[in-house]
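Good morning N.,

You mentioned wanting to compare the apo and holo forms, so I went ahead and generated the holo version with MV4. This is what I fed in:
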Amino acid sequence: MFKRILIANRGEIALRILRACHEMGIEAVCVYSKADAEAPYLRLADRAICIGDAPSKDSYLNISRLISAAEIADVDAIHPGYGFLAERADFSAICRDCKITFIGPSPEAMGKLGDKVECKRTARAAKVPVFPGSEGAIEDEEEAVRVAEEIGYPVIIKASAGGGGRGMRVCRNEATLRSNIKAAQQEALAAFGNGAIFIEKFLEHARHIEIQTLGDRHGHAVHLWERDCSVQRRHQKIIEESPAPGVDRKKVAQVGEAAARLIKSADYCGAATVEFLMDEKQNFYMLEVNTRVQVEHPVTEMVTGIDIVKMSILVAAGETIPFKQKDVEVRGHAIECRINAEDPERGFMPSAGRIETWQPPGGLGVRIDSHVVQGYRVPPNYDSMVGKLICHADTRELCIARMARALREFAVGPIKTTIPLQLRLMENSDFRQGGIDIHFLERLLK
Ligand code: MV4
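and this is what came out, ligand included:
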């Protein structure tokens, strides 16, 4: 096993990884920017190294500074967490060249699953359901029109290198499609340095259901069931839960097996999430693969009892996944609320500043993943998530009741947070009935 790991991240996920290291008897080296120098979790690290100024590009995104810190601290491995460098194939390759284990997939596996056109190709070969559409990248307008005639309108244009909904255009007829192809290619090239676009059938009413998977270096891959992440706004998830309410378990098992097949076919090592859209008839279509540990991983940990971050470290060290697919069971229900320092009353404007009051809830079935303490100053340089509140209970109904009481207990001020909105959601009758889709929150906010 590793003796020492460098955590190439900040905030709650840096603390989450540090905790896994310490439970495994591994030393944790944290890095921090000047904006994070006072962060209290740094005191828990076996060593903390300043890697630069506040802007991410000068610190958490600066590969040469991270590698220097890793060499100075003499670590065996680097855990990237999520965001920043987590999905950069070049970073995974540089770690390998420097003989430092990257805790995550190889650059080759990222290549097969990270790029959307390539990922769809890998998925079709592994018999994973995808939306009907172009086989590869679209070259010109005529090809786009030919494919659209075949699959029928509406269609959606997506950038192969895009993510989080960027670079998407819905086209409901031939004229719109024609006038959008060139612009989409140019926009993709400008935004992602890759002009490849593809088209597929557009689904109007959908739920976002994703499968947590895990692969090791010995050709094993398992799934840890699903999370429903339909409650989102502008591609920012607000609430995630597992299991997905009202979905046929046999169907989820099938999709889970397909997701495990997909990462196995890419020789994937580590934690990955395979995203799907589900239509009203509970048909699933793969969207993309996130080649990292995700923000919402605790939801799956609470219902399966499996420590996903610990598993990501184990398999990176070359160990075999220590359980079998048939032993992965969903027990009860879990919900996560992402607590963002934003004001839902003012268009979710970031609400940075000093947190004078921070009194998190507790009690049975309540988990807080947060790096925040009373008196903590939220730096304006990074994303606005100040923590996650995760509840677990025997049933969805009891879990919602527990989450509502935990949100009522949670006192945060004077900064504004998403807590009042999440409490409103717990009390919303459509949410309580599981009547959610990807447009639910935007409808509610109107
Ligand atoms: C779609 C879609 C409908 N049909 N693809 C948005 C983010 C990116 N991962 C894919 N996205 C979508 N792809 C087809 N063929 C609708 C969305 C979408 C969406 C997906 C998941 C969660 C929230 C969403 C909000 C708007 C659109």
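The longest strand covers residues 207-215.

Happy to go through it together on a call whenever suits you.

Best,
F.
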